[in-house]
Amino acid sequence: MWGWKSDYIKVLRAELDIDKTERIPAFWVAVWLYRHKDWPDRTNSSSIVKFFLKEFRINTGEQEELFRVVVPDITPDFLVPAPFSDDELMRVEIGQPPDATPEEGGTLKYLEMRGIGPMHRLEFNPAERLSVITGDNGLGKTFILECAWWSLTGHWAER
What we know:
This protein is of the alpha+beta class. The chain has two domains: 2-90, no CATH class; 111-153, no CATH class. 35% of the residues lie in helices and 10% in strands. It contains six helices and four strands. The strands form two sheets. Strands 1-2 form a two-stranded parallel sheet. Strands 3-4 form a two-stranded antiparallel sheet. A hairpin with a 2-residue loop joins strand 3 (111-116) and strand 4. The chain is elongated, with a radius of gyration of 23 Å. It starts with 7 loop residues before the first helix and ends in a 6-residue tail after the last helix.
């Protein structure tokens, strides 16, 4: 386990160099990690970074090699009274990185549709290995499969 070797900073720095990335932005990592924390009213960007560094016991050498600890110039009202839920954050469209390859081999574990067709809500929990969908013509069997395909690929099967 490289994380426990005495030269772990060097190993991590090499990984960042391979990815051609800069140092890790400590502020944004901290905001993500502590998104559910109830911060006092006087909290500012610097105090969040300081809290993160202290909480994870990140020493000066680690900071210099791995983290960008400069606080971004943002307005002090970046904190909101109610934290975003994980569901709300997952709905934010940030897109794929330009060099990302398409994911393959996904497995549909759950599909829920609301306000589509004549049903108010449809919930589909496929079995682990095989699911059989039966019914008369025109009831929406193919539509469920098309929605499953779209949820896994982001594209409609017909296009």
